[in-house]
């Protein structure tokens, strides 16, 4: 006989949970990366990163230094000022203004990348949780730099993650007749996954990290968390508690 109180009912409850049939899978979000790496920076770590990663990844450099860029044979090096950097693993878009562009040259240029190693003094993505595929290391963060060099080659291939949320537009209080009402989910999202198009909120599932904060603050229930679904969580709780009670567990 066990000398720990309620051990048998607890074990029985865990067994009941494990015996449940698998739930219907939730929708998923896909990423596809073929290894096009953008390295942004202005110090010797740029050369170090190209040397370390150039054989496995297709690296390109955006040089932000005031000094001339290093000579990197076989690696494309761009110069200028960054206008914007957006996206996520497999779909980053860089827009920049080329320096020294001649008459008739385009004012801005654009290029696509699968991942970004940002070595600037300040990160291009300022949100608390930047998108997947983006790694940042300041000059005084050698551990972060080493970790990024180890991690980037692993970011090639096809990846999936659950679509964590569901948004029901019909009961969302964001906007009526283009008058903005509630914007609680936009304000709280730490990944900037939620935005407004004026009439409704849009959630980019690729940027969502699944924290659940938007569902917690939503006053109307329009935003809900679905991983696991509420109904599935209910089934799990009923199985746990029912088995615990049937095996005479002490619930006080
Ligand atoms: S669960 Fe909601 S708040 Fe959290 S990252 Fe996703 S969209 Fe943003
Ligand atoms: S918090 Fe809820 S009601 Fe408010 S804008 Fe977001 S989804 Fe709509």
Structure description:
This protein is an alpha/beta fold and 252 residues long. The protein folds into 2 domains: 30-158, FAD/NAD(P)-binding domain (3-Layer(bba) Sandwich), CATH 3.50.50.60; 162-252, Alpha-Beta Plaits (2-Layer Sandwich). 23% of the residues lie in helices and 28% in strands. The protein has helices spanning 7-18, 45-53, 142-151, 184-188, 213-217, 230-246, and strands at residues 28-33, 36-41, 58-63, 76-86, 92-98, 109-113, 115-118, 134-136, 157-162, 165-167, 175-176, 179-180, 194-196, 201-203, 223-225. The strands form 5 sheets. The chain has a 7-stranded mixed sheet with strand order 6-5-4-3-2-7-8, with helices on one face. Strands 1-9 form a two-stranded antiparallel sheet. It has a two-stranded antiparallel sheet with strand order 10-15. Helix 1 (7-18) runs antiparallel to helix 6. The protein is globular. The relative contact order is 0.17. It binds iron/sulfur cluster (2 copies). The site of one iron/sulfur cluster has 15 residues, from helix 5.
């Amino acid at each position: 006989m066990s000398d720990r109180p309620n051990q048998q009912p607890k074990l029985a409850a865990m067994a009941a949970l494990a015996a449940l049939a698998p739930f219907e899978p939730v929708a998923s979000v896909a990423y596809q990366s073929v290894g096009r790496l953008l390295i942004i920076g202005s110090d010797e770590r740029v050369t170090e990163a190209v040397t370390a990663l150039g054989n496995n990844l297709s690296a390109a450099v955006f040089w932000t230094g005031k000094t001339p860029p290093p000579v990197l044979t076989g690696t494309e090096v761009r110069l200028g000022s960054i206008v914007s950097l957006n996206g996520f693993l497999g779909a980053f878009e860089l827009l920049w203004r080329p320096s020294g562009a001649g008459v008739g040259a385009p004012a801005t240029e654009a290029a696509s990348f699968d991942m970004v190693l940002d070595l600037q003094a300040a990160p291009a993505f300022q949100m608390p949780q930047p998108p997947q595929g983006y790694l940042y290391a300041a000059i005084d963060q050698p551990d972060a730099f080493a970790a990024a060099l180890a991690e980037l080659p692993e970011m090639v291939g096809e990846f999936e993650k659950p679509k964590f949320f569901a948004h029901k537009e019909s009961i969302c209080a964001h906007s009526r007749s283009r008058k903005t009402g509630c914007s609680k989910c936009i304000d709280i999202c730490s990944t900037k996954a939620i935005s407004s198009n004026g009439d409704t909120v849009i959630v980019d599932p690729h940027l969502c990290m699944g924290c659940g904060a938007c569902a917690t603050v939503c006053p109307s229930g329009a935003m809900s968390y679905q991983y696991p679904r509420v109904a599935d969580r209910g089934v799990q709780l009923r199985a746990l508690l029912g088995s615990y009670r049937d095996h005479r567990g002490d619930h006080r």
